[in-house]
Amino acid sequence: MGKRRRCHNTDDLLSWSPPQPVQAFAPERVRAASLSAQIARGVSEALRQSGRDRPQIAEAMSAYLGEAVSPHMLDKYASEAAAEHVINVVRFMALIHATRSRALLQMLAEPFGWAVVEQRHLDAIGLAAALEERERINRAIDEQRAKLKRSGGLS
Fold first, then answer.
1. Are 39 and 85 within 8 A, CB to CB?
2. What would the mean pLDDT of 57-86 be, rounded to a whole number?
3. With a threshold of 0.85, does the pTM exceed it?
4. Using one digit for the tens of pLDDT, what is the confidence trace for 39-67?
């Protein structure tokens, strides 16, 4: 009996995993004693994960804002020790633009019990919510029907 050969042109179905609809930093990478320190750690993590160096990110932020952002400023925003240099929301948006980091947005949303997802998933989320509501209504109908049967009001 011959040796089986694997077709290397076919993807291994067992190696596939679904995409993650919510992108977040590993909690241990952004855990900090204060909110400003946590934001600094998030900035640092986004810079590290972006695959671009700080001068490139500063240049992209500058182009987005129409004002100068230096690598030195990025160093300050990413430093927990520079508490007086917390990034402002306008520059935070530019940083997200330059790094493409949805995890930065997710870091802001999580404390409120929210999630940042791509718009293309909104219809699926709406459908799931409608199905959950339909299931809740069906349970309420079944409970009312059972009550009526017990009381003899429904045969």
1. no
2. 93
3. no
4. 999 999 999 999 999 999 999 999 999 99
Domain that holds residue 134: 117-155
Whether the Cβ atoms of residue 77 and residue 91 lie closer than 8 Å to each other: yes
Q: Is residue 40 part of a domain?
A: yes
Q: How many domains does the chain have?
A: 2
* Whether the Cβ atoms of residue 89 and residue 65 lie closer than 8 Å to each other: no
Same domain, 62 and 126: no
Is 48 domain-assigned? yes
For residue 53, what is the DSSP state?
-
d(CA 151, CA 154): 8
How far, in Å, CA of 43 to CA of 108, rounded?
A: 12
Same domain, 40 and 75: yes
Helix boundaries (H) for the chain: 27-30, 35-49, 54-65, 71-77, 89-99, 102-109, 122-151
12 assigned to some structural domain: no
What 3-state class would DSSP assign to 15?
helix
**Is the domain of 57 the same as that of 129?**
no
46: its two tokens = 């986004």
My answer on whether 52 and 109 are in the same domain is yes
